[in-house]
């Protein structure tokens, strides 16, 4: 019976530690700053991110003689994860910048852009939920479980960009 309780407590501790790490990662993205962004969001800019953690290149390298022994496979995985996180920071900064633009639109013309208020909240929840999912997938991928798919994250940012473009282009309400 003690073994069952020890297993349960160990599992709870591991889950709590994982949650703490996830929250810390998400908080680090809240303070992202892209620096010299052009102010324009582009889906094409994030295309490499969508295939950066694809396992085919790693699998190919692992089949090459001496690659595993020399540490090349582990180095490739580590470097790609680092670059992937750079993309995540830039994407979070771009999203925050676009969200600030949309809030400015609402503040400047509240009646004209009243429909943006609800959309802004939904987009923020969708973005941070997708970012949490990607971070969870990264943790599982590190353990060799599952794959990372950032497509939803990029799509949410793209839909916010589209809503802002429609709001600035038309004098009437924006369809979301």
Structure description:
The protein has 176 residues and is mainly α. The chain has 2 domains: 1-30; 45-53 and 85-169. It contains 7 helices and no strands. It starts with a helix and ends in a 7-residue tail after the last helix. The mean pLDDT is 82.
Summary of the model, kept short:
This protein is an all-alpha fold. The protein is 75% helix and 0% strand. The protein has helices at 2-30, 47-52, 55-62, 67-70, 72-108, 114-142, 151-169.
Roughly what is the average pLDDT, rounded to an integer? 82
**What's the story with the biggest beta sheet?**
none
SS-derived structural category: mainly alpha
Can you write the helix and strand succession as a string? Answer: HHHHHHH
- Give the terminus-to-terminus CA distance: 55 Å
If helices are DSSP runs of H or I spanning 4 or more residues, what is the number of helices? 7
Task: Detail the poorly predicted runs.
Answer: none
Shape descriptor: flat
Rg, Å, rounded: 20 Å
Number of domains: 2
Percent strand: under 5%
Helix content: over 70%
Layout of SSEs?
Elements: H1 2-30, H2 47-52, H3 55-62, H4 67-70, H5 72-108, H6 114-142, H7 151-169
Helix pairs in contact: 1-6, 5-6, 5-7, 6-7
Which characteristics define this entry?
mainly alpha; 176 residues; 2 domains
């Amino acid at each position: 019976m003690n073994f069952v309780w020890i297993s349960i407590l160990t599992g709870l501790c591991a889950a709590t530690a994982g949650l703490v790490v996830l929250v810390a990662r998400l908080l680090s993205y809240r303070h992202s700053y892209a620096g010299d962004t052009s102010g324009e969001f582009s889906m094409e800019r994030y295309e490499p991110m969508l295939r950066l953690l694809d396992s085919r290149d790693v699998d190919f390298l692992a089949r090459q003689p001496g690659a595993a022994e020399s540490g090349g496979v582990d180095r490739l995985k580590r470097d790609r994860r680092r670059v992937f996180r750079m993309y995540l920071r830039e994407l979070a900064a771009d999203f925050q910048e676009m969200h600030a633009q949309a809030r400015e639109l609402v503040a400047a013309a509240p009646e004209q852009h009243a429909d943006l208020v609800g959309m802004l909240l939904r987009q923020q929840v969708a973005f941070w939920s997708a970012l949490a999912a990607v971070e969870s997938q990264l943790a599982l991928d590190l353990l060799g479980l599952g794959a990372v798919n950032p497509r939803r994250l990029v799509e949410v940012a793209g839909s916010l960009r589209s809503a802002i473009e429609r709001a600035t282009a038309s004098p009437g309400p924006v369809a979301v």
